[in-house]
Amino acid sequence: MIKSELVQRIAERNPHLYQRDIEILVGAILDEIIEALARGDRVELRGFGAFSTRARQARIGRNPRTGGTVQVEDKVVPYFKTGKDLRARLNQKP
């Protein structure tokens, strides 16, 4: 599902809301999650999961096109851990 599909589904379930307002709301939520992660904060949505960051150390990588070695700098990457309720719903037997 992409962002526009998410907005469309929310709009279908809430016909009393304007689609442009839903787009603004979804954008604001995602922007706030991004800003919190950029600050180094952890974002937890109960029942859904938790977003956090992890540091990756610098390493020597390989260029797949040339086969040569490349220095990969250290970086911070996003990490998501699913919540208990989400895992339970994903693993339900029909």
From TrEMBL:
Key word DNA-binding present: yes
Binding partners and assembly: Heterodimer of an alpha and a beta chain.
Function: This protein is one of the two subunits of integration host factor, a specific DNA-binding protein that functions in genetic recombination as well as in transcriptional and translational control.
InterPro entries listed in its UniProt record: Hist_DNA-bd, Histone-like_DNA-bd_CS, IHF-like_DNA-bd_dom_sf, IHF_beta
Entries under Pfam families matching the protein: Bac_DNA_binding (PF00216)
Species name: Bosea massiliensis
Coiled coil as UniProt keyword: no
Similarity comment text for this entry: Belongs to the bacterial histone-like protein family.
PANTHER family, per database record: DNA-BINDING PROTEIN HU (PTHR33175), INTEGRATION HOST FACTOR SUBUNIT BETA (PTHR33175:SF5)
UniProt keyword terms in alphabetical order: DNA recombination, DNA-binding, Transcription, Transcription regulation, Translation regulation
This protein's name: Integration host factor subunit beta
